Amino acid sequence: MGSSDYMIIRHEKMGWLDILNLLIFRPRLSDCKFVDACLSHDTKLSDTPGYLVAISLLIQKLFLLIEYPLRLFGFAIEFPFNLVTANGGVLSLIVKFLTGSVVVPEEGTLNWWTFLGHTDPRLHLTKSSSPVSYLPQLGALNTVEGVNLLELLLMASKSAYENEEYVNNAVTNYWKMNFVGFYNCWNKYTETYGTQVYIFTDTAEDASLIVVTFRGTGFWVARDYVTDFDFSWLSMGSMGRAHVGFMKALGLQDETDYINGWPKYYTGDPDKAGAYYIVREQLRTLIQDHPNAKIIFTGHSMGASLSAIYPAILSLHEETDMLNRMAGVINSGRERTGDDTFASYMDALLKAKFSKRQCYRYDLVARIPFDDPIVRYKHFGECIYYKNWYEGEVITEEPNKNYFDSRFFPDMYYNQYKDFINSLFLPKTQGIDYKETLASLIYRSLGFFIPGMASHGPRDYLNAIRLGKVTIYDKEIV
């Protein structure tokens, strides 16, 4: 038994009747058999769980039910897309089939992209002035001339969903930067190498920028969605409560005690080191090799959450050298990562840096885990909120913060139809680079059934960065 406060939802112990029981009889969470909790006297878990908690548990249960079929379905979807792409298109595939020269795509190679990769195959960076010029903390960063830093970080986050060969090719041949390494990291709770992260620098010698990019929620990985909707937490002492699922993905060793859970030095099997320890050792070397470089943590979706939590563990271990070299955190489509105390701690930790998250329209993922009297998860840092591709603003909290507010659903559906139609005409006004792929149109169609889901796609975030104007402090940044 650990010494920290914690509340952990044991999904394997949760049944359909348990969810029904929450909705009808509204028991205390501490009385539920699938809840493990260790609480101090000043921590209350007696509040009656509301419908948001029951909905969250229902979604998790459904994903656990379809875990294996979802993976098979994903392969069945991705293989034909990759077959066509690897052979140069449908007509070329037919010719190659008739001549017996068909290229069969293999997972883990350049011939295999994820479904999200097919929704937006763009990899080149546009040469334009950066809309992040309003961030004074970035003034000292001398990145490649003409590169939009927001675009670079989003492109890096988008590429993190792909395999190592793909990422290396993107960094080296498209962005003309220095690929450091791609790491498959162990999660002791899922017993899988389920966390992916890669690192690159803007130049091979005397770099000014070190980018650490975490992979987001796998499109066909049910347990990633379970983690997204989970509201289990672990007290981090004075830091507040942090999302235990995201910490597990980073390499947490003990889910009931943050001191034992985050030993400063990992002494276990080196082949089963967590992402935090692997990345930290790489950063230790990189800041020595590149004395003028600044570190940026980034990611999309779950990757955004991992990038947001990472500096907190550095702070726990008093890694002053790395924290001093950190420029900040900027990510897209980020889930909430802790309670209000944790959010305040992170705001203070990053006060002299920069802490930005981007949210496009009614992105569903940016509104979970829920912020209500029971869950109390909060965002931290400023939010660059895009109302559409062309209009953005900097705010503290996006509208419809818990997604299920019925007042917002008409506008959510309206914006879904608007984006779908606009995407068809965008190439006529902005050029062929904005032409939708078949995979993108399929993905956008999901928004007709789950409004806000399509808004989470990296493609819209990239369009918003390239085309949008951000209004901040009554100043418009093009």
Molecular structure report:
The protein is 39% helix and 16% strand. The protein is α/β, with parallel strands linked by helices and 478 residues long. The strands form two sheets. Strands 3-4-5-8-9-10-11-12-13-14 form a ten-stranded mixed beta sheet, sandwiched between helices. A four-stranded antiparallel beta sheet has the order 2-1-6-7. A hairpin with a 4-residue loop joins strand 11 and strand 12. It is globular and about 70 Å long. Mean pLDDT is 89; it is low at 129-142 and 473-478.
Brief description of this entry?
The protein has 478 residues and is of the alpha/beta class. It has helices at 16-24, 51-65, 67-86, 90-99, 115-119, 149-159, 164-174, 222-229, 244-250, 258-261, 275-289, 302-316, 320-324, 340-349, 409-430, 438-445, 458-467, and strands at 6-9, 35-38, 178-187, 192-201, 209-214, 233-235, 241-243, 294-299, 326-332, 354-360, 382-386, 391-395, 469-472, 475-477. The protein has 17 helices and 14 strands.
Termini separation: 54 Å
- Biggest sheet statistics: 10 strands, mixed
Could you estimate the helical fraction of the residues in percent? 25-40%
How large is the radius of gyration?
Answer: 22 Å
What is the overall pLDDT average?
A: 89
User: What structural category do the secondary elements indicate?
Assistant: alpha/beta
Number of helices: 17
Q: How many strand units?
A: 14
